[in-house]
Amino acid sequence: MKATRGQLELALSTKITQWEKDYLGRGSVSCKCDLIRDMAIVTLDGILTKAEMELSKDRSGREQTKKFRNDLVESGRHDLEQMVYEILQTSLVSIHTDISTKTGERVIVFKLSDPWDHAQKD
Length: 122
Hints:
- By secondary structure, this protein is an alpha+beta fold.
- It is 45% helix and 25% strand.
- It has one domain (5-112).
- The radius of gyration is 15 Å and the shape is elongated.
- Residues 4-113 form the Na+-translocating membrane potential-generating system MpsC domain.
């Protein structure tokens, strides 16, 4: 039986949340994934610590927090690539990410080598 879009989105959200806990030391408050054409768009809420929120009150602190958090995601790229392949049966072309130091929200866009449903078709 082939997985539905919702099942794949939930599986990816669950894996990313677990990766955050295992790799980064803490997970987000919530994680939501949306599959659209050849992209997986992931929204994570509540990812910044209180210290990072405090640091982000000035421009220099915001830049440091964003750079550090983006570097962490990039350093875990191999794990993320494996997760995406395991769930969607397609490889990653690129990862795009940004974080809001105002809201503590991160958006990650996984650009896929094929449409998310390519393996679902007969």
